[in-house]
Amino acid sequence: MVLYIDITEFVDSRYTTGIQRVITEFLLRAMLDSYVLKVICFDKLSNNYILINNKELKNFLADIKNYTIVKKEYINIYKKSKKEKIFFDLDSVWNTGQKRKELYSKLKKYNFKIFNFLYDLTPVLLPDMAKQDTKSNFPSFLQAVCEFSDFVFFDSKSSQEDFLKYQTNNINATRKLDTKVVHLGSDFTYKKSKYKSKNLDILDKKYILFVGTLEPRKKHKLVLDSFEELHKKYKDLHLVFIGRVGWKTQKLVSYMEEHPLKGKYFHHLRNIDDSLLERFYKNAFIVTYISEYEGYGLPVAESLQYSNITITSKNSSLSEVGENFADYIMHNDKKKLVDLISLYLENEDTYKSKKSFIKQSYIPQNWDMFYTSVINKIKHKMI
């Protein structure tokens, strides 16, 4: 079996969270497996795919932000072969220059099996909250998946159901697709932190943590407004946002930068590594993850892994991920958020009891389990 994975968007964006975390964790394990792995990247200048060898791939995954791929070994993927060939799209490929309808159609002529991993349907369910290029390109990508894919993975039952409903209502598709839900891992594979002690002062404080890219779906403003109210009564309380600045957030970013508590009790960290992120999870008083819609909600799983009291939204996939271990509010309910956090601040026994329940009962999903579930299904489908 030969497994092809296109990481063009990953290499171009250099992001390290969300979809890119899934790709990273999958590739770290795939490189150690027994089948032939071909990780490729499209070179616009030559209009050809580049094969990234394992040494360079390891270097890239160890330093995603800075590593430059040196060796340009061009590869022609359009060849007849007796080996079973799989093209597995894990990346945010809807925005790549290689449009999937044309690519998948051509791959099929060369006996490829096509597998996809779909994370959420935000661009078609909440188009005003998506980036413009994603909003434009995502529907045609879904059409290509429905027309050509041999198997589709989802990270939650919620996203699977969203896709099947969309397929029924919006795409004239007669093919019945094989699908499987595989929950994401919540552990970290990381290098030693490069951050100096001056960046870690907040870890000794009592803080509310919110991990996630700043984007319209995620309710950072609601959490910040709630914190303003809480801080009037609980003067030693801090709020920490961890995540890069995404799209359609200019107004929010300006508000955050000019906030009177910024740098004192309110903190926004944009580029921290997994080692430091783990420390922030471990030391958090409470974790919030308020969002209008999620395909999975990885920070909820990451938070619960460290037995954190986790407050999230009761919608889409989030109750599937948080189960009965998280606390839930409506995504726009500021009062309930303030009341919940106040409850835990004022009732130490309640706080300790909830954390103890999570620690004793929550069973986290790890990336080894994720990888094994995915690759075993791929191998089984190829028999």
What do you see in this structure?
The chain has two domains: 200 residues, Rossmann fold; 165 residues, Glycogen Phosphorylase B (Rossmann fold), CATH 3.40.50. The protein has 383 residues and is α/β, with parallel strands linked by helices. Helix 4 runs parallel beside helix 6 and helix 8 packs across helix 13. The protein contains 15 helices and 14 strands. The strands form two sheets. It has an eight-stranded mixed β-sheet with strand order 4-3-2-1-5-6-7-8, with helices on both faces. A six-stranded parallel β-sheet has the order 11-10-9-12-13-14, sandwiched between helices.
List keywords for this structure.
383 residues; alpha/beta; Rossmann fold; 15 helices; 17% strand
Q: What share of the residues lie within helices? A: 40-55%
Strand content: 15-25%
- The tally of structural domains comes to 2
SS content category: alpha/beta
The beta-strand count equals 14
Number of alpha- plus pi-helical segments: 15
Cα distance spanning the termini: 10 Å
CATH-level-4 superfamily name of the largest domain: Glycogen Phosphorylase B
**Residue runs with pLDDT of under 50 for 5 or more positions:** none
Our Rg estimate from Cα atoms comes to: 22 Å
**Largest sheet at a glance?**
8 strands, mixed
With strands numbered from the N-terminus, the spatial order across the biggest sheet is 4-3-2-1-5-6-7-8
Mean pLDDT: 94
How would you spell out the order of helices and strands?
A: EHHEEHEEHEHHEHEEHEHEHEHEHEHHH
CATH topology-level fold name of the largest domain: Rossmann fold
Which second-level CATH architecture of the largest domain applies? 3-Layer(aba) Sandwich
The backbone outline, from C-alpha atoms, is: globular
What CATH first level of the largest domain would be assigned?
Answer: Alpha Beta
